[in-house]
């Protein structure tokens, strides 16, 4: 008791410092919060600062904690919902609280089916349990998410200034109810949010008829603080992209990764309209990533209709593209961004057979190596496809990457003469499943010029070199896997 009294004799400032040092010790924080009302007020803001809900039981516990003591919600800075399908429950109760959390800055949501195995996913549209129960719950949740943003949208005449007032980052990693994509009209209000600076949406579709809810954007040009927009694995046409990109005051980072699907119109397939949408952010974009859908390396048909392409994108310093992107044609003289420093080309090949994959990879890299290199360029990066072979066979994948080394070496020599560094990254898929989780992708630097110092010709690349390279690559991938596991979001609840 004497120790407890001596601790409570300290000023709040000193107590705050002491409790802050225990931020990562959940047990200690909970013990302090339960000791007395004074310590509860000091410890609970750390306990509830970051909330990571992975189960239905945890969801109910958090809602109960907020209901019994509403002040706890004031401490929440980050909320992540990631409940697996086998214990999924409607999140409407927590969403009601989200709208009232005054200091929430980061909110991320994953569908309960993200990260599941292909066998499970392939039956989601035929399994009565999913269709009759989970799909209804998930649709209800999507509706509630949209309502929360609608209350805060600048396009809403009855906008509630107290709805999500501090939110800076929002991520929705989802899919449709009976298909792999959800519709952009279900969450159009996100783009009209008054404080969001980062939006990451995956597997969203936007067709001509889906753009009606976005037409109101013409009344609010350059009105939102959005800085970073990521549209991942999406099916969206340029007509839907145009109003979305008209809203930010000064977008600095934009990623459009189109779904690998045949016979579906996407923004990158209508380059003139695509560029019209991009040009709205020409003065501010610093990073632009476009991975196009399936197809051959894109060939520009009518240069005169491009009106300078990326030439007016003076702030653009990093461009990441797939060989199928129309942006491949915008790095040649008269069309390239004047201050482009890094060009990263990512393969999207999906061939499984060993010999066929090697031949296709070599053909593609040969064409990639012939892409124009603007005078301003300082880094030329290559990202081999992680779908060339089964990702469950990393040794075979490492062997395939090794087969490209001689061609990479030749390109490196050419680039070195122009003071351009050559680097190769692996866009590593850390898990299987048709719908990956948010943290499943990680780019790993496999090698750069330093690895070629002792290998000046193809003849020097011996079997011993190959085995050593495979071992080195696998060690890097394993290390990255371990790093990602250790850095998964944690919660004190």
UniProtKB/TrEMBL annotation:
InterPro entries, sorted: LRR_dom_sf
Protein name: F-box domain-containing protein
């Amino acid at each position: 008791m004497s120790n407890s009294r001596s601790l409570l004799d300290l000023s709040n400032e000193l107590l705050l410092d002491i409790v802050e040092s225990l931020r990562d010790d959940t047990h200690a924080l909970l013990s302090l919060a339960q000791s007395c009302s004074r310590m509860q007020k000091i410890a609970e803001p750390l306990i509830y600062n970051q909330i990571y809900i992975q189960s239905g039981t945890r969801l109910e516990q958090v809602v109960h904690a907020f209901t019994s003591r509403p002040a706890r919600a004031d401490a929440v800075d980050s909320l992540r919902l990631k409940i697996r399908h086998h214990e999924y429950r409607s999140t409407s109760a927590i969403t009601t609280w989200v709208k009232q959390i005054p200091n929430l800055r980061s909110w991320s949501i994953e569908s309960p089916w993200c990260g599941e195995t292909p066998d499970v996913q392939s039956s989601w549209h035929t399994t009565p349990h999913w269709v009759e129960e989970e799909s209804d719950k998930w649709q209800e949740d999507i509706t509630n998410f949209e309502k929360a943003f609608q209350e805060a949208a600048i396009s809403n005449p009855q906008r509630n200034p107290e709805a999500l007032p501090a939110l800076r980052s929002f991520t929705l990693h989802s899919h449709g109810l009976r298909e792999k994509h959800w519709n952009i009209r279900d969450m159009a209000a996100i783009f009209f949010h008054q404080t969001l600076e980062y939006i990451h949406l995956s597997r969203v579709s936007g067709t001509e008829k889906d753009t009606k809810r976005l037409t109101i954007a013409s009344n609010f040009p350059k009105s939102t603080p959005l800085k970073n927009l990521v549209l991942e694995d999406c099916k969206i046409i340029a007509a839907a992209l145009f109003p979305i990109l008209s809203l930010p005051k000064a977008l600095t980072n934009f990623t459009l990764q189109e779904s690998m699907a045949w016979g579906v119109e996407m923004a990158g397939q209508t380059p003139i309209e695509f560029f019209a949408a991009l040009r709205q952010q020409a003065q501010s974009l610093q990073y632009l990533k476009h991975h196009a859908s399936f197809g051959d390396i894109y060939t520009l048909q009518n240069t005169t209709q491009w009106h300078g392409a990326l030439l007016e994108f003076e702030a653009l310093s990093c461009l990441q593209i797939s060989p199928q992107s129309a942006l491949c044609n915008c790095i040649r003289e008269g069309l390239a961004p004047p201050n482009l420093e890094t060009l990263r080309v990512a393969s999207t090949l999906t061939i499984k057979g060993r010999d066929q994959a090697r031949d296709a990879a070599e053909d593609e890299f040969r064409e990639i190596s012939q892409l124009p290199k603007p005078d301003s360029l300082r880094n030329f990066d290559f990202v081999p496809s992680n779908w060339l072979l089964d990702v469950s066979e990393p040794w075979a994948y490492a062997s395939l990457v090794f087969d490209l080394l001689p061609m990479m070496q030749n390109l490196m020599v050419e680039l070195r003469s122009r003071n351009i560094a050559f680097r190769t990254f692996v866009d590593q898929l850390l898990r299987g499943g048709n719908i990956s989780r948010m943290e499943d992708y990680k780019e790993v630097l496999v090698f750069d010029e330093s690895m070629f110092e002792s290998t000046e010709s193809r003849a020097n690349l011996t079997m011993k070199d190959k085995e050593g390279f495979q071992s080195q690559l696998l060690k890097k991938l394993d290390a990255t896997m371990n790093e990602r596991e250790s850095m998964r979001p944690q919660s004190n609840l």
